[in-house]
Amino acid sequence: MKVQLLGTGSADGWPNPFCTCASCSSARSTGMTRGQTSAIVDDVVLIDCGPEVPAAATKHGTDLSGVRSLLITHAHPDHLGPAALLFRHWAGRPEALDVYAPIGVLDQLQHWVAPDDHVRLHPVAAGDVVETSGYTVRVLDANHGDPTIGEAVLFDVTAPDGGRLLYATDTGPLSDATVASVAGAGFDIVLLEETFGDFLDHRTQHLDLITFPEELRRLGAVGAIHGMSDVVAVHLSHHNPQDVAERLAPWGARVVPDGTVLRADHRHHSPHEVPRRTLVIGGARSGKSTYAEGLFAAAQRVTYVATAPPRPGDDEWVSRVAQHRARRPAHWTTLETSDVTSVLLAAARGETVLVDCLTLWLTQEMDDAAAWDGDLSLVDKQIDALLHAWRVTQAQVVAVTNEVGQGVVPATTSGRLFRDAQGRLNARIARESDDVVMMVAGRPVTL
To answer: Is the dihedral of CA 43, 237, 154, 296 positive or negative?
Structure first.
């Protein structure tokens, strides 16, 4: 199976031609432009055909003369450009073209089919299975559509050579029925929409950088995708950050330029898999925890080690802990303990562990050892044990810690003692880490 992406952008593309935001400006400066999302399979099956697609095919060195089947997900204008049928008519194509789409799409297309055209319109709905041009197409429910355009669908396409594609745009979080229908599919290529990036208050039937990894997790849980699936984010808009590729990489997904050819027999290995031991460091409110949690957003199972000690009577602290708990996915396991060493030593290969954070861990160790008078001998032993566990753990582990040495010199002896101890701990953990990321103003800087 060969899949060429004729476009990877949203309805307005990326950059939006009327927009001067940082994301659009950066895209213009690098020459990276994304047109309306569309894909052509083996030069035979075209999926979605917005008004930009015919010109995009020419731009990317292909033509549409071999297309025998056209699949259209829904009637929004970036997915449906009826004039393409007129262009085909002008070219005098004698071959039959079978069009499969929801009835709302066909209602618009029928006015563009000339009486002598060999174009056959086939209404489809979620749950249908059709055979066309040697391909098996399973029609899936999309969390999209409205009374003005009718139903929207997604497509599961199996090629004659056995290659299998999931084309999933546009959609919000997938329905349980859709996830169940692709159980065990083991898709070779997955094109999954990711429209809104960090803009989370969009209230639309689309995905963003919070819901996108959750859909990957759900698909992975039923065997629809696996470690060798090539997952590509499409329908990208300027609501995405400039570093979207880096954000997607830990989840095994990527972005590619328009025109890219994907092949089912050339499996993609993500070059940016989360290293086995990652230290995330930064100042207060720098985005450390959010970034660390995001690294495991698509993981099936995560053990979250919360080292915060209880603070009865501190309402602000209780509220902060509650907020942390609320944003963790329901399938994560939370351990509220300062015994990080035992957790790391007990973790088996393939497990994922997130420790948040080492600063509170050190605070608890100094409290337990009554070390605030300057005797750190017992604390140093605990740090040695932690370093050993960090070094030998079989788990994939991410730990969060605070950078405390760049602010005002503490006014108290105990404050300076803690600052120095934290700095030494950070340096030792960093030396034993595969990767160290510093968060600055919400942006990750790899050290």
So the answer is: positive
